[in-house]
Input
Amino acid sequence: MRPSWLTPGQVALVLAGAGAVVALLSACASFDGTVAAPPHVEGATFVGNAACADCHTNLTSVFPASAHGRYHRDDLRFAGATGCESCHGPGSKHIAAAGAREFIVNPGKDPTACFACHLEIQAEFHLPQRHPVLEGRMHCSQCHDPHGPDIAQPAGGLAMARLNETCAGCHREQTRPFVFEHEAMREGCTSCHQPHGSISSKLLVQRDANLCLKCHAQTPQGNGVWIGKVDHTQLLRLGSCWSAGCHTAVHGSSVHPKLLY
Ligand code: HEC
Ligand code: HEC
Ligand code: HEC
Ligand code: HEC
Ligand code: HEC
Ligand code: HEC
Ligand code: HEC
Output
């Protein structure tokens, strides 16, 4: 029998049974998602993380440090809401069959399991500009480690380096070494780009000069506006800093210190 997703009727049933869990999770003030039903595996029951440890020690040992693990309690009643099985579905039949793949859900290529709790993220992937996750061309787990410490977690410079590295895996041109580096890159790609989706083209956080002005102060001098040591009064009327044919090398330049090209 193949695992399948719950029908709406079954969802209602699981939700009713998971009332205590919903209360537990809604106590986490920073989490505005809705806890819904875990993936369904026909005829299987929840066994808890400890049962997975026998064969997947590498994952159960890193899991407590993950964003999801922090909310987990070693209590069978919460297995389907915060544990391994909240993403993989109940594991009893998988274990009874010595790890048979047909009795466990692998959400690697299908974000449905994630959207059960992260509804607001689902909305971001419906914005006009977006990473093609819903289109099936890439997956949440190419940017997020579902089991270990996550890139979205601030951990000093280390997490930032890992963040850019993750993007570099697919975007070589913007992440190669440059002779004239743009220091903004040290604050991470997300200082200018929305990682999931955006209303602005190129997933930009802001579509106009404000994107740059949040770090580069404009100083009024006389009737003009100066940025750095250059009078930008006329220049700012030409368009955004990068599209007006000025700082086209926003990610860094190999030829020009002012990132002109
Ligand atoms: C008795 C050992 C054993 C236990 C216990 C076990 N697994 Fe597995 N699991 C395996 C084996 C072996 C595979 C690899 C199957 C294969 O490659 O065909 C596997 C594969 C998986 C996969 C990948 C399936 C896929 O389609 O790629 C997931 C997800 C998984 N296990 C989750 C769990 C979870 C969650 C638990 C605890 C509820 C668990 N496992 C407990 C042995 C086990
Ligand atoms: C937040 C959801 C989530 C939770 C919680 C979760 N997993 Fe996974 N798991 C995934 C995703 C997504 C993949 C696919 C990863 C990929 O394709 O790179 C995966 C893949 C796997 C695999 C097969 C691939 C591999 O990396 O070996 C196993 C086995 C597995 N998980 C076991 C577990 C165990 C054991 C736990 C609990 C300690 C757990 N998972 C908790 C989402 C989750
Ligand atoms: C059972 C509910 C549930 C499921 C299913 C789930 N999450 Fe989460 N997720 C949470 C909760 C709760 C948090 C913690 C929120 C917080 O810290 O504010 C969280 C946090 C996160 C974070 C933030 C990490 C950080 O460091 O701040 C990421 C990224 C994430 N989840 C990705 C995923 C992905 C990818 C999947 C699917 C593979 C998934 N989640 C499935 C409940 C879930
Ligand atoms: C292109 C890489 C990428 C993909 C693909 C991606 N994310 Fe993210 N996600 C990020 C980055 C980077 C952050 C951190 C954003 C920040 O700190 O400003 C993040 C933050 C998050 C957060 C926590 C912060 C928040 O906005 O609430 C959650 C939850 C999350 N992602 C879930 C998901 C889920 C679920 C998927 C798949 C449907 C997914 N992400 C796909 C890169 C990605
Ligand atoms: C797994 C590969 C992958 C990863 C990792 C990845 N991207 Fe992407 N990115 C894509 C794909 C595919 C597209 C869509 C390109 C298209 O439609 O032609 C895209 C599009 C973009 C675009 C818009 C480009 C345009 O022409 O509109 C930006 C900006 C971007 N990604 C930034 C990032 C950032 C920042 C990160 C890290 C947080 C990241 N990407 C991680 C694959 C990836
Ligand atoms: C200082 C702000 C800034 C930072 C930081 C930044 N970008 Fe960009 N990025 C831009 C702007 C502005 C554009 C639009 C350029 C254009 O339209 O010509 C862009 C465009 C892109 C594109 C689309 C390129 C194309 O030719 O269509 C990708 C992909 C991209 N950025 C990836 C990244 C990655 C990956 C990182 C981190 C390593 C990053 N960016 C960091 C500002 C930034
Ligand atoms: C996250 C902050 C941040 C953002 C956003 C940002 N920059 Fe920068 N930028 C810096 C820092 C820091 C430096 C190095 C210090 C300096 O010269 O001000 C720098 C340097 C520069 C330089 C070289 C200046 C010189 O005199 O050597 C140019 C040109 C530049 N940025 C253009 C842009 C443009 C265009 C944008 C918008 C697409 C932008 N910056 C967005 C932080 C940022």
In short: The pocket of heme C (ligand 5) is lined by residues 131-132, 137-138, 142-143, 166-167, 169-171, 189, 193, 195, 202-203 (CB under 6 Å). Confidence is low (pLDDT under 50) at residues 1-34. Residues 156-253 form one domain.
